[in-house]
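Illustration 12: Thioredoxin domain-containing protein.
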Amino acid sequence: MALRISLSTPPSLHSTPSQWSSSSSSSLVPSRCVDWSATKRRVPSAISMERKRESVGVVRSSLEATQEAAGAVAVEGQVTEVTKDTFWPIVKAAGDKVVVLDMYTQWCGPCKIIAPRFQELSEKNLDVVFLKLDCNQDNKPLAKELGIRVVPTFKILKEGKIVKEVTGAKFDDLVHAIETVKSS
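Figure caption equivalent — predicted structure in token form:
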């Protein structure tokens, strides 16, 4: 059985059997394409119903993320992974404590090298909140808001405001910046 589609003539909504031609003795095919998208259908299709279900799921997910963000807490002596939804609530909860944010990516070599040393810093400085943000597509809005240009970038915040920044895997510079902000 062969299927013949003719694109040379405009589609018709009123194709009739007289406009059909026989491509074989056993099957008939229309000589013009029928554009069904131009018809006005009021009955929801399975695809549109699935899209509605997906959008409801997205709303539910964002509500869950908001609830999750409201209860987000940084653990003392550990590096806490944050997202665009949990970052600001944790910073607000830190109050007047110094907050150090490690902005990294999964594929960054220097980020992987400095990560264990960043963890050690969090274990030694219990009066500082240590956070890390994976600058992936999901967290891109926050990374943009914080003005990231390179990874790793360390943002040091006090009372919810960025007061220092260290770019690159410069551990000594990071330690000095943290000590400076703590003493101020």
